[in-house]
Amino acid sequence: MATTRREAEGEKELESGGAVWQETQVSPAIPTKPSSSTSMVMMSYILRLIVIVLTLLATIVMGVAKETVIVDVSADYTLEGETKSTYNSSFVYFIIVNTLACVYSAVSVGISFTNQNNSSIHLPLSIADLIVAILLFTGNASAAAIEIVAQKGNNHFGWTKICNYASKFCDHLTASIVLSTLASVIFAVVLVLSMISLQKKSH
């Protein structure tokens, strides 16, 4: 039984007993790496989820910030009052802005996830991200200014510090402002990622 063997361009043919067998070299499959745009999209989702948690916590902590204050004026006379975050317009604005940012972040995650292949929504979302980030920073600045007055007072305007009488209340203020500030910084990172993604899609 005669057997012949031929090799041509990486292919081998074996003839045996009138039958022809063909062997073809198959290159091993190379796993594909996720693209940089996909990585940025996933990073954006994760950061938005973190913003949701931070702004929600900031809203709750600021919303429940209140304390009853008792000041001893003399041995026979005391003053009793209540400090509450909703008594100050800056803190109310802070609560509204963080609530808005929390709701918007949740909605934007849903919109981005359901419209991954729709590039027309990227620019409107980036503009909305910019607006919400600005609102967050202004809300934090406004609340921080009042919180500093509560901590240190202002002798020029005759505003006395209240944190030595309402330490629990001031602790709530500080915690909520820190949480919201972190959310603002993360939102700024999300905005940068959105701009980079838009720039890549335009080329």
UniProtKB/TrEMBL annotation:
List, for all copies, the residue spans of the domain called Casparian strip membrane protein.
40-185
| Subcellular localization, as worded in the UniProt entry | Cell membrane
On whether Transmembrane helix is a keyword of this UniProt record, the answer is yes
Q: Which UniProt keywords apply?
A: Cell membrane, Membrane, Transmembrane, Transmembrane helix
Q: Topology versus the membrane, per the UniProt entry? A: Multi-pass membrane protein
Per UniProt, subunit arrangement is:
Homodimer and heterodimers.
Family from the record: Belongs to the Casparian strip membrane proteins (CASP) family.
Q: What is this protein called?
A: CASP-like protein
Q: Which organism is it from?
A: Dendrobium thyrsiflorum (Pinecone-like raceme dendrobium)
The uppermost taxa in this organism's lineage are: Eukaryota, Viridiplantae, Streptophyta, Embryophyta, Tracheophyta
